[in-house]
Amino acid sequence: MWGDIDDALALAMLHSLQDRGEARLLAVTSSTDDPSTATFIDALDNFYGHGDIPVGLVRKGVTAQQTVTRFPFFGSDRGYTQALSSAQKPDGAFVFPHTLTNGASAPDSVALLRKTLAAQRDGSVVIIQVGFSTNLARLLESKGDQFSPFDGMDLVKRKVRLLSVMAGAYADQQGRPVQKGEPEFNLILDIPSAQQLFDKWPTPLVASGFEIGASMRLKGSSVDRLYGYTRNHPVAAAYHYVDGIYRKKETPPGVLHDHATYDLTSVLYAIRPDDGYFNLSATGKISVEPDGSSRFVAQTGGAHRYLTMNDAQRARALEAMTLLASEPPGGHQSP
User: 71, 117, 249, 273: most buried, per Cβ within 10 A?
Assistant: First the structure.
């Protein structure tokens, strides 16, 4: 949550799924070390009527400046999270209201993860990771505390039944498995944490590779219509804000760019794993290479799998993600 808006679209999906009674969003943690990310998450939560959801912030993690240095196409370390969470109306009120006015005051991500997990029934939690692995790698390293006597590994073993993660690349553009994927954004900026996560995570893990989200793109031409039920929509505003970064030569003038659905795919699988939107690879082991690429090795009884899909599934999944990400708050009630 900072530069690429599939994070915001994915969180919008989760709020819609909660309104539909399909999920209960327990907490959201940011893996970009920028206070505005926590503030914008809180603004999204408030927009969707779920302002009581706690928000955590990573400390000493990947910063916006590090992201821009590694990926200069972002152009500036001022992401949409900073621009939109600070936007004000002429009377001084926030355009996108939020109760967490200072993101730097948000609790530490790992502390929030531990507190949240400790309060849940054993085997009841699904974690969705759509950013860097910093928070979950540190969770595994954490020790017992006031929330739970169990260390991070044991706490995850007890409480979590699935990790759905957007990271890596496992097939080419034709869907054919590759032995070693290309370096991928969510891995390359904190490689040690990604290596630790995939090496040590103790529950079943399903990865959505770069190739899945890249093959399905939300239509920019439909954004203003889908989100036009209210004047100031934080997701639509974010889409407009980053449009200049993601436009391609073939994008028609006056039309928003089509945006990849990377993070949305991990949400869709996590909440609707049995609805046939995706297929799964054989079981195996995913490892992260020193260059930020991923490697999958099939193993009988392995805990890791990755998503695959055919053209019919691609059409169904894209339609579902488009509608869920744009569904008005409260199950069709305009804010």
Answer: 117
